[in-house]
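User: SURF1-like protein. Structure?
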Amino acid sequence: MRRIGFILFTVAVLVTLVKLGFWQLSRAQEKEALSSALKYRSDQMYYSLASLPGDPRWYSLTLHGEFDHSKAVLLDNQLYRGRPGYHVLYPFEADNGWVLVNLGWIAAPDYREQTPVLPEHHGELRISGVIAPPSSLLELRSAPLESDWPIRVQNLHIDQLSEKMALPLKPWVLQIDPDNSIALQQTWTPVVVGPQKHYAYAVQWFLMAVAITGLAAWWLKRSKV
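Assistant: Predicted structure:
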């Protein structure tokens, strides 16, 4: 019974390790596809919301319109050179549609109850940027949105923000071009972990599976003596 229990436990561990290894391989392939799509699509510029394809992610977009500064969103927990801050986002009206635009990073005040002085750019503007999916970090639970503007959020849940703003926001975010005159400090990157790291993690999981297989074989052989 002891040997059977050990064998079953070892098999369960091996299956888990192998699954983790293949999961890392799939993540690496996703990052490679993302990098290729980003390189290709970011070179393709669109000039209106109506002209965008069904999946507009990573395409470049230039729009003419106006910001609504009364509905500022501060994406929390954004570090720049070790200093805490926020990403500043405003809804932008163009082509009879609304887009959430990420202007970039701004430093947080010394006290949590304070909000930073936010930039405002009035009148019709021309902005350019890259279309990106909204940030999605791990949350233990989804916190309700604050009642007063500007609101601080941990993640960009576009549906909730759209309801809060009473605006039909597009289900993506326009990350403003760093060269745009109204852009703040840019800290956003489309690919955080490259495919090479996922391949390295996959190798580690597979090597652990091989090591455990060897140790299990040694123990079973030794237990027969």
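DSSP finds three helices and eight strands in the chain. The CA atoms of residues 25 and 210 lie 17 Å apart.
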